[in-house]
Description:
- The chain is of the alpha+beta class.
- The protein has three domains: 200 residues, Rossmann fold, CATH 3.40.50.620; 54 residues, SH3 type barrels (Roll); 75 residues, Elongation Factor Tu (Ef-tu), domain 3, CATH 2.40.30.10.
- The chain is built from eight helices and 20 strands.
- Helix 3 packs across helix 7 and helix 5 runs antiparallel to helix 6.
Amino acid sequence: MIESFGDSTRDGVWAAVRLRIDGERIAEADAPGLDRSIDGMTLLEAAAVGGETLAVDALANALGPVFRAEPSRGRTAVAMSGGVDSAVALLRALPGAVGVTLRLWLDPAGPSAERACCSPEAVIAARATCHRLGVPHVTLDLREEFRNAIVSPFLDGYARGETPNPCIRCNGAFRFDELLAFAERAGCDRLATGHYARIVERGGRRLLARGADAAKDQSYMLAQVDPALLDRIWFPLGEQGKEQTRDEADRAGLDVARRAESQEACFLAGDDYRAFLSRHGLAARPGPIVDADGNELGVHSGAWEFTPGQRRGIGVVAERPLYVLDTDAAANAVVVGPHEALARSRVRASGRLYLPAERVDAKLRYRSPAIAARVSGTEAGFELELDEPAYGVARGQAAVLYAGDAVIGCGTVTGAS
């Protein structure tokens, strides 16, 4: 017999739930505000019970740390963000679905925390969608774990003069690791998410692939997901576009059908990343702006405020437009030059190739087109020889390698020349 406690507060109102659990069943519950008694229910059954918002939130906080269920063939865990994509993924997984939402750390000073995919409001929206469809919903409070695994390395990367991509790190490792571990505890065969990506067979193994709708493809952000995990993952929206998803939610009468999309880096809570970095330890430290020969052209207020390829905000008057070529964290210097000086033909990355390859299409930033390249493996990852120069290559960004539509490698850029 174990005990579990959960509480929730909002606008000065507080609710609490205390459970005594015997195996996978609730032996006794002190849980006012729910639609019905949960005494004698399994944890899975209790996760589908509604009621007053604070009471249900308190119940979720009590269930999350102890939740488990006996395996059931055909049961699917569905990652619920509170948005339309995950809601339609849930529809596709019925019957036998279990919704799960990760509550992650958000900067409390951010201007629009309610839009983030892991905010308290998003958790409530995700739970409401599940309960409307009679589906159990579980919340996993991973705020501290997320801050250590994603936010701290983001800050450290900028302090080292890199331009890290926290969404790649989150989706490719932290988020899927936690979700798949939950799916196992919940007795599920697989995990479904609302990402626009597909899974294909190449070279005798399963690989991530681009979504059918190029405008919504999220394979770049998911590229670090270990291919060995793909036999437990399902992307039900991979063959369609966003409007088809919204129409499907409309037909089902779901309130989230026209809900606005959240920003990419959820923990920024809608803020500019420079303001976030400034609030969290990267203090202003003036230093030189120099050209490629080391001649000082101006002064900046912090090298971490700049990234390769940046043109605006340099603050140096010149005959020709200047771009950030590089930042030197040790010297606290920003190197600038003309656009042609940004060209890089060789890129080094730490990471791995999922399949042997000689030729690939390399995508070096989320919003940049892929460039054909020759790839060779190294001890730490791989090196690319690009067929045409790339501009604005930044250390810390992801290098995602494609063969056709399949992702066959992923790494973090460590240098370019």
